[in-house]
Amino acid sequence: MTAGLLGGGAYALFSSQATLENVSFASGNATLQIWDGDSYETTWNSTINLANMYPGYTSPAYNMWLKNASTAPVSLSVAMQLTNGGGNWPNGLENVVEALVANSDESANTGWFSLNAWNTTPASLPGGNIGQGSESLYKLYFRMSDTADNSSADLSLPGVGFTFTGTQAL
Asked: What does CATH list as the number for 32-148+163-168?
């Protein structure tokens, strides 16, 4: 028979530590701006005034420039929504006045939606994401539906406003 002897001993090892200090963190931001006629701002107080609209009327294109001025290196997908019905909302025009946004070469667009639909559901703008520091041209159109009748005569919706929301694209 073989007997074994197990022995244990205590021992010490050298050790040392190093420290990392003074680390700072700062977040960037997502910033979407709109051209107001002479510079990029967060608000464009446009001079769009469509008077004497009639069933079947379509406005000329209004050029609308958006810029991704984010400090963070992110691309933005952009959606548009009517967020201010202005004075006299609702009066019936919100159901027969429609808007459409097209990309710069008009190869893609949002489709025509009534102001009421733009108010309840945002729509993604065509043309893909806007990269950091980049600008995108969109063409904005308005029309009065050819289904409008006399109940839409002599009405106005002054001060309507749209909000553009740029969301970081993954």
From this structure: 2.60.40
For 70-95, how does the pLDDT look when each residue is reduced to its tens digit (9 = 90+)?
A: 999 999 999 999 999 988 899 999 99
The pTM score is 0.86
pLDDT of 6 reads 56
Cβ atoms 28, 71 nearer than 8 A = yes
Domain boundaries, the chain: 32-148+163-168
DSSP 5-71: ---------------------------EEEE-SSSEES---------S--TT-BPPPEEEEEEE--S
Angle at 55 between CA 51 and CA 60, to 5 degrees: 55
Query: Which amino acid would we find at residue 121?
Result: T
Average pLDDT, the chain: 93
Q: Which ranges in 22-165 belong to alpha helices (H)?
A: 93-96, 115-120
